[in-house]
TrEMBL record:
Taxonomic lineage of the native organism: Eukaryota, Metazoa, Chordata, Craniata, Vertebrata
ERV/ALR sulfhydryl oxidase domain sequence ranges: 250-359
Pfam families (UniProt xref): Evr1_Alr, FAD_SOX, QSOX_Trx1
Organism annotation: Neomonachus schauinslandi (Hawaiian monk seal)
UniProt name for this protein: Sulfhydryl oxidase
Gene behind this protein: QSOX2
Source organism, top-level taxon: Eukaryota
Swiss-Prot/TrEMBL cofactor(s): FAD
EC number: 1.8.3.2
GO cellular component: extracellular space; Golgi membrane
Keywords of the record: Disulfide bond, FAD, Flavoprotein, Membrane, Oxidoreductase, Signal, Transmembrane, Transmembrane helix
One GO BP annotation of this record: protein folding
Catalytic activity: 2 R'C(R)SH + O2 = R'C(R)S-S(R)CR' + H2O2
Any one GO molecular-function label of the UniProt entry: protein disulfide isomerase activity
Length: 527
């Protein structure tokens, strides 16, 4: 294609065809002196190399960056830039700083991926919404520094909090297929969630309670009571507000819950692959598709982004049945996630600070990327190893995670998203935060409040289903008579009361009939 484009004579060149010819070293030197508001990437390469032209074409749909190529004919120039091998990429930043970029392998995919991941480099859009003026938008989002190669406990726990207290709350009561899906999903969580002990204990308690329920319909409030630890079972804790770290967005409407959900799904599927014995005795063992299918049913039944669940269902229908091993299940989810990334690149929901590029990027996993005959290809063996490392419990970092302290009293009703959204005092002292989350339910405000649009990542779409209705549901979940009885406890009391009255009546009639018969037999005149 490059040859074809370059062989065009100037007269009939397509109007949007980018200049692919090399520039002169002197042009680059003058670029260094003149400030450009964009990044300028200069690929230094030999005459026969296509890398520079390929990277120019790769970056063509992106804005805030221009790519140029220079041939390695002027040795003095190469020395001046510090180039010791070619191809190399010299980057001039918008603020004037410059230098050679450091990448794992000098391949087209590595250069392109690096450049696409630069802050503010994003796909061109036909129209961009106006960025809200900071003065009009008083939200101050406190940025938490994090390492992209790590998983954060705070993200997984915030995601679980949102899933259990907000997303599920859209379902007033659960029965039939919905209840079965919830039971299986909670079983998968209880057995495979690699996080902290108090959270695992909460999930295990929820799972045992669901598994032993004699009812075929349960009110959501009963689930909420358990998640809020109304019974004060010791050692149980789940934070009751959102705190994104690796899932932070540069603006409140970006990333957040959906990001944490992806991370949770990858973590569960990797854990199932690396610790298959964890599912023994659950009915989900020995089936390589079991966890994937459970995730699929969760997305189909409960995920509050309906558009997302439809897309996911299409992908599942197409190829989930072809998964035959636990490793294939891990790779299936990875591939489909990349398909979603690809579809959403340049979409309005894309956070410019976290552009959607094929993942893992070359800086995270150089061995995952290869080139075959000049075309990028994945080394799936390496990708699998990487996924197993990245999504393992050992890669979980507790930085920023709330201290469960005395877990017996933790995890009360949600406290709203004030701290996350910086609406109140953005960074309260640690002690104060803990005191708030560890207060016993009786001291908490009487009407629990769910977070308002707590960084859902998909704007209004996620809020639509679970937002208002969910909030109403959760608000209804106040203890009966202020004594800590849940609605399920009360219904069980009524059932027991009726059952014992019936039993007493049956016993009464039984003994009456028996005593009558006895009297008749003893008063009968003997023959
Ligand atoms: C099941 C599902 C379906 C969705 N479908 C849609 C949709 O149809 N339309 C829509 O607008 N939004 C959809 N979303 C939301 C969308 O995928 C993103 O979650 C959202 O745009 C936020 O993106 P993000 O930058 O946080 O990265 P995300 O895509 O959310 O990824 C989160 C993190 O996972 C890691 N990661 C990235 N790619 C991979 C991969 N291939 N394998 C393993 N880990 C990876 C990275 O660390 C990344 O930061 C869906 C979300 C889910 C959970």
């Amino acid at each position: 294609m490059i040859d074809f484009l370059q062989n065009h004579t100037d007269g009939d060149r397509p109007p949007a065809c980018p200049p692919l010819d090399p520039v002169r070293p002197s042009d680059v030197l003058s670029l260094m002196d003149s400030r450009d508001s964009r990044y300028v990437a200069v690929l230094l390469e030999s005459n026969s190399s296509y890398v520079g032209r390929e990277v120019i074409l790769d970056l063509l749909p992106y804005e805030n960056i221009v790519v140029k190529r220079v041939l390695n004919t002027d040795k003095g120039f190469l020395e001046k830039l510090g180039v010791s091998s070619i191809p190399s990429c010299y980057l001039i930043y918008p603020n004037g700083t410059r230098g050679l970029i450091n990448i794992g392998k000098p391949l087209r995919s590595f250069f392109s991926s690096y450049l696409k991941s630069l802050p503010d480099v994003r796909k061109k859009l036909l129209s961009l919404p106006e960025k809200p003026n900071k003065e009009e938008n008083p939200e101050i989002v406190v940025w938490r520094e994090f390492d992209r190669s790590k998983l954060y406990t705070a993200d997984l726990e915030s995601g679980l909090h949102y899933l259990l207290r907000v997303e599920l709350a859209a379902h007033k009561s659960l029965a039939g297929a919905e209840l079965r899906t919830l039971k299986d999903f909670v079983t998968v969580l209880a057995k495979l969630f690699p996080g902290r002990a108090p959270v695992k204990k909460l999930l295990e308690t929820l799972q045992e309670w669901l598994a032993n329920l004699p009812l075929d319909r349960i009110p959501y409030n009963a689930v909420l009571d358990l998640v809020n630890n109304k019974m004060r079972i010791s050692g149980i804790f789940l934070i009751n507000h959102i705190k994104w770290v690796g899932c932070q967005g540069s603006r409140p409407e970006f990333r957040g819950y959906t990001c944490s959900l992806w991370k949770l799904f990858h973590t569960l599927i990797v854990e199932a692959g690396t610790h298959p014995e964890a599912l023994d005795g659950t009915g989900l063992e020995d089936d390589p598709q079991a966890v994937l299918q459970t995730i699929r049913r969760y997305i189909h039944t409960f995920f509050s982004c309906k558009e997302c669940s439809e897309h996911f269902e299409e992908m599942a229908k197409e190829s989930m049945d072809s998964v035959k091993t636990a490793d294939q299940a891990i790779l299936w989810l990875w591939k489909k996630h990349n398909l979603v990334n690809n579809r959403l690149a340049g979409h309005l929901s894309e956070d410019p600070k976290f552009p959607k590029v094929p993942w893992p990027t070359p800086d995270l996993c150089p061995a995952c990327h290869e080139e075959i005959k000049g075309l990028h290809s994945w080394n799936e063996g390496q990708v699998l190893l990487f996924l197993k490392r990245h999504y393992s419990g050992d890669n979980l970092v507790d930085a920023y995670a709330e201290d469960p302290g005395d877990a017996s009293e933790g995890g009360g009703p949600p406290q709203g998203g004030e701290r996350e959204r910086g609406l109140a005092s953005p960074e309260k002292p640690q002690g104060e935060q803990h005191a708030k989350s560890l207060r016993p339910p009786s001291l908490l405000p009487p009407r629990p409040r769910l977070p308002d649009g707590s960084q859902l990542g998909l704007d209004g779409r996620l809020q639509s289903a679970s937002g208002a209705e969910g909030r109403r549901e959760a608000e209804a979940a106040v203890p009966f008579l202020g004594m800590g009885f849940s609605s399920l406890d009360m219904s069980l009391c009524v059932v027991l009361y009726v059952a014992s009255s019936l039993f007493l009546m049956v016993m009464y009639f039984f003994f009456r009939v028996r005593s009558k018969r006895w009297k008749v037999r003893h008063h009968r005149p003997s023959v």
